[in-house]
Write a structure and sequence with these properties.
This protein has about 400 residues and is mainly alpha-helical. Helices cover about 70% and strands about 0% of the residues. It is built from 16 helices and no strands.
């Protein structure tokens, strides 16, 4: 009995998967919900505008509900398209998704209060509000509660404003469609959550393979032993520090996790650089240096091609940006595109600091390892020219604290 109860609780709160796995995929689930919301909000706006036009011609005088749904749906779409780029966390997605569903319920209630609908059961409207939640994946206990509450709320309004015969049909329709909606939601939501969870496991395996490939690339480069481990550690420390600052608060926790996860593959493109150049003792020629510089674009292409089937757009974008732009300079004199200032993605500016510092304190064919104090001095000289003037002092402070 206890096992059944535990299984039921696990299903209601975590969709039948382990709690740890659910918390891990939650940001991905809500990002998916937000993409679906763009479609459902546009559809709601379109159909309400069509109904509004029909109402104008038939002169049934029920304009208010259609205007509400049309303007509200368009507003939600615009909010997602504009603010969604800034607020990428699950709470924002939760608010706009449930906002659309609440808007739809208000529309249904307002439609039922119209005198012209007093004798008409709202079958199509009830079907709409009962099945709309199926498009959103969320904890079953919350969605079940929401669907039951909307059913009860609608029937209370229907009882007050409609004739008894219409109310009876509304009762039958509402209960029937709500039960159907609950059943369909259970099947669809469980399937979607398990697919996402399974996809995340595959993504982890794929990421481990790519990281292993990056380690193999490092082994080819006889002068960079331990580079990917050390740079990942520097990136992790810098990310932990800046994510608490107001300027970077707009970035969700998942973004910073992706930056740390992608750090080890920043030099993946070196797999396409010949050993004769990669391990050349002494200074490179201008032509050889041009070939070395191509590793940034090679790395971006390898990541893009190898992870095209991974359903985590945020991670892939971060990994590509790190691989491609970590040699850009803040003053615009870097490569491969000569980006300047905040044109350079934040993740690449973070990676640049870790990469350059580790290169300075490590031995290379063309130089000896610099003492850490000397490396810090060189980096201080590059603030505002090579490095982000806000990130560099924070990174230097972290390094100095580790020395002390």
């Amino acid at each position: 009995m206890r096992k059944v109860f535990t299984g039921l609780i696990n299903y209601l709160f975590f969709c039948g998967i382990p709690r740890k796995d659910y918390n891990e995929i939650r940001p991905i689930v809500w990002a998916r919900n937000r993409r679906i919301l763009k479609i459902t909000s546009l559809l709601s706006a379109f159909f309400s505008i069509v109904l509004l036009i029909v109402d104008l011609f038939t002169k049934t005088d029920t304009l208010a509900p259609y205007i509400l749904l049309a303007t509200g749906s368009i507003a939600i779409y615009l909010i997602v398209m504009t603010l969604g780029r800034r607020f990428k966390n699950a709470y924002f997605s939760f608010a706009v998704c449930y906002g659309q569903m609440v808007l739809t319920i208000i529309y249904a209630v307002l439609l039922s209060t119209q005198p012209s609908n007093a004798a008409i059961p709202a079958t199509s409207v009830i079907l709409f509000i009962s099945l709309l939640p199926i498009a959103i994946d969320d904890r079953p206990i919350r969605m079940y509660g929401f669907m039951i509450c909307e059913c009860i709320g609608y029937l209370i309004v229907s009882h007050h404003y409609k004739e008894f015969s219409a109310f009876k049909l509304d009762c039958v329709n509402t209960i029937t469609f709500t039960v159907i909606g609950l059943i369909i939601y259970s099947v669809v939501c469980l399937r979607n959550i398990k697919e996402i969870s399974s996809g995340l496991r595959i993504e982890k395996i794929q990421n481990n393979l790519i990281t292993s490939l990056a380690a193999a690339v490092e082994e080819r480069d006889e002068t960079t032993g331990g580079h990917i481990v050390r740079t990942e550690s520097y990136v992790s420390m810098l990310v932990e520090r800046i994510r608490k600052k107001e300027k970077y608060a707009k970035y969700p926790r998942l973004y910073f996790r992706n930056v740390v996860m992608a750090a080890p593959i920043h030099d993946l493109g070196k797999i396409k650089i010949p050993d004769s150049i990669l391990n050349k003792p002494g200074k490179l020629t201008e032509d050889e240096y041009d070939i070395i510089k191509k590793h940034t674009e090679y790395g971006a292409k390898v990541i893009q091609n190898s992870m095209r089937n991974v359903d985590d757009e945020n991670y892939i974008n971060v990994a590509i940006n790190i691989a491609k732009y970590h040699h850009e300079r803040y003053d615009g004199t870097g490569y491969p595109e000569g980006l300047k200032g905040e044109e350079i993605p934040l993740e690449a500016r973070i990676m640049s600091l870790a990469d350059v510092y580790d290169a300075l304190i490590s031995k290379r064919p063309y130089k000896e390892a610099f003492p850490k104090e000397k490396a810090i001095s060189i980096m201080q000289e590059g603030i505002g020219t090579q490095f982000d003037p806000e990130l560099a002092p924070i990174f230097i402070d972290i390094v100095q604290q580790s020395i002390n």
